[in-house]
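Database export, one record per block. Field names are fixed; values are copied verbatim from the stored entry.
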Amino acid sequence: MDEILKHIEKDFNHRVNIKQKRPDIYQLYLPIFHEDGDMIDLFIAPKESGGYTLCDYGLTLQRLAYSYDIDTENKEMILQKIISENSLTENDGNICLDTNINNIFTDIMHITQAYAKIGSMRYFKREVIESLFNEMLEEFILTELKEFHPKSKVLPIPDRDDLEADYQFTPNGHPVYLFGVKDVSKARLATISCLEYQKYNLNFRGWVVNDDFEKLPKKDRSRLTNTCDKQFTSLEEFKINAKIFLEREKK
């Protein structure tokens, strides 16, 4: 450990304080900070297989939890996306990066930047958190409903590309057109599309999966309910009941 600790001191021009917390576990006090001015928590320890590990022993998420809860599937997905995109690993809250003496400086800068980004999740706009609704819907359909042979981005009326349905299932010979609705504009597009399909005398079922049904204006909720054949008020409800309703369509 002495060799790499001396290397760290040299790389940071001795502007680092290193304290042993446990045998072979050292905390690095570096002039690297979160947005609110708090110093980023960082530790280094040797690996049994050789090399070293930079980690935070769960302190980044613990610190975030004081003002921001990772309490939804979307937030958890964003967190895991940050971890994955930065080539980090996470085990029971401990976020780590393997390193060696040749890359220690760049790896320290890399992992502390990732910690800072995770620490700033509470500043993310609601729109950013909600933006994963479509991705989560697609992932569920393509992995959990593949037995129903889903097709994406279909045109029930070939010459009307403004009336695209997000997905199509054909459990009984007649298509089920599915729309993912996360905002007012998509709710209105789904309503108009289903009405146009009806005008063209298409034999279909119109389904809607809402991100949050209650956040839609009352008039849009009413129009959507009166137009479509089946509506799921949330993605979680769709995940629980989609197979049941698709099986019913087979009969």
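Remark 1: The chain has two domains: 2-129, 133-250.
Remark 2: Residues 104-119 form the longest helix (16 residues).
End of record.
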